[in-house]
Amino acid sequence: MASSTDDYLIRGGEIVDRCRELDRIIARAEAEKAALLGERVDRLLAEVPPGSAGYEAAERSMFAEVSSALRITRGATARALGIGWALQTRFPQTRASLASGEISARHAAMIVTAAAPFDLSDADAHQRFEQQVVPFAEAETAARTEAFAKSVAAAVSPETIVERHRRARGDRRITVTDLDDGMSLFTILIPTPLAHAAYDRVTAIGRQVSLTRAAQDGAAFEGPSAPQPGEELTDEQYQRLAGFGSMFADLAEPLTDARKLDEIRADIATDLLLAARSDSLIESGLDSIRGTVQVTIAGSTLAARDDRPAEHDGHGPIAPDLARRLAGTAHHWERLFLDPTGMLTRTDSYAPTERMRRHLRARDRHCRFPGCRMPAGVCEIDHNHDHAKGGATDLGNLCCLCTGHHALKHPDNDLRWRWSAVQSPGGVVTWISPEGRVYDDVPPPRVQFV
After folding, report:
1. Average pLDDT for residues 370-392, to the nearest whole number?
2. Which residues fall within 8 angstroms of residue 119, CB to CB, at 6 or more apart?
3. CA-to-CA distance for 130 and 96, rounded, in angstroms?
4. Is residue 283 domain-resident?
5. Alpha-carbon span 6 to 47, nearest angstrom
6. Which of 42, 108, 25, 119 is nearest to 81 (CA)?
7. Cβ within 8 Å of residue 31, ≥6 positions away
């Protein structure tokens, strides 16, 4: 007779199988729907050519008809019609993959949107773009596909992407929207790498503030692990320090400071804007903390011999002039060596522990659980084969995992929900679920700009 554990795992597997089949059915239905919406647009264009008398009224009527029937907004209607028409006219591989259930409608939308800068008549650019992106999308989540597709689009049509990014920087602005309860939303529109660096910096300052106050309130930090003035703490360092004693039971809300980390971030950003003098910023311990972003740029572009796009790892392409400015203020550079397929093979050197960490962050770029996009810089370094069981501290046995997915492997977990992971050559991490299912996560290839 099967045990309750066996029943739990067997039924769990049956549920997942059925859900996967339903996803394929849904994708095939979405492909049919997209084809019909594309046909609706084609019929409009054949009936009333764009620019001719009556076109705007006919288009408005079409939008009203579809939005009313499908009970969606006009903006959602325009997006659905545009994607449906694009799939029928310019994206045959994407359309076929959606129709076969290999990708979802969200994948298809990400692919079409990423190629928006291409000239509509440039069939070669669309073909080269799809040849790289569709196989990636069939093995990855829509979120990972979006970042990869943006980079491929930049590689296929770099001048277009660079020019769009330069124009977009002219839209930099700050807005204030008043909300309820005496609060307002302060929004700043800036280039993506600078936004992530700013967020990283206020996080680093916030960690130090909470730990410094804890020390002032009696936590006996000692030795080299004690927080130093101006020190930028990684997630791993923060968790190690914040775990000191019972007063840090909740990392996001230390008992010595009633504020959550989100509140501290907001307070710090406000203080920096309101208290700092723009004519004479004073260097202090907190001022020396810098935000961290990981940008990949070709040596020829760094030397200004060309203007190929650089890549903000995990987020997509950025303009080369912005990447050159970031490189000019970087504390250290790390050369990456790629194979012909764009996979990272090694960095300058990775024997010392910190160099190994930099290599892994450069290779993985995000948590290595399938589909997770948590940036590698805030992940933990995991021994795939547990160190306590003889696993080597070797690049072939290490990868970046976020806290949540790292916990899946914990040996204290019940067998019914304990996962395992094995790394094979090339950095491929194979996950085995409690039901015995196998999921491979391949290191993300880097787009090579030519």
Report:
1. 82
2. 125
3. 11
4. no
5. 62
6. 42
7. 87, 95, 98, 99, 105
Cα–Cα distance measured from residue 214 to residue 219, given in angstroms and rounded to the nearest whole number? 6
Residues across the chain: 450
Average pLDDT over every residue of 347-356: 53
Any domain includes 6: no
Q: What is the rounded distance in angstroms from the CA atom of residue 303 to the CA atom of residue 299?
A: 6
Across the range 314-339, mean pLDDT stands at: 72
- In the predicted structure, residue 27 carries a pLDDT above the cut 90: yes
- Type of residue numbered 288: S
**Both tokens of residue 178?**
């008043």
User: What percent of the chain is modeled with pLDDT above 70?
Assistant: 77
Give domain status of residue 51, yes or no: yes
The last residue of one of the domains, among 259, 275, 291, is 275
- Average pLDDT over the chain, rounded to an integer: 80
Q: Which of the two residues, 187 and 448, has the higher pLDDT score?
A: 187
Residues 363 and 241 occupy one common structural domain: no
- Please state the domain count of the chain: 3
Please enumerate in sequence order all residues whose Cβ is within 8 A of that of 177, keeping only pairs 6 or more positions apart, or say none: 184, 185, 187
Look at residues 41, 30, 17 and name the one whose alpha carbon lies nearest to residue 142: 30
Residue that finishes a domain, picked among 228, 251, 275: 275
Question: Any residues with CB less than 8 A from the CB of 234 and at least 6 apart, and which?
Answer: 377, 378
Is residue 94 pLDDT above 90, yes or no? yes
CA–CA dist 111, 134 (Å, integer): 8
291-314 burial: b if 16+ Cβ within 10 Å, else e? bbbbbbbbeebbeeeebbbbbbbb
**What pLDDT is stored for residue 3 in this prediction?**
67
Range(s) of the domain holding residue 118: 19-156
pTM for the model: 0.67
Report the distance separating Cα 286 and Cα 206, nearest Å: 10
The pLDDT of residue 297: 75
Res. 333 pLDDT band, cuts 50 70 90: low
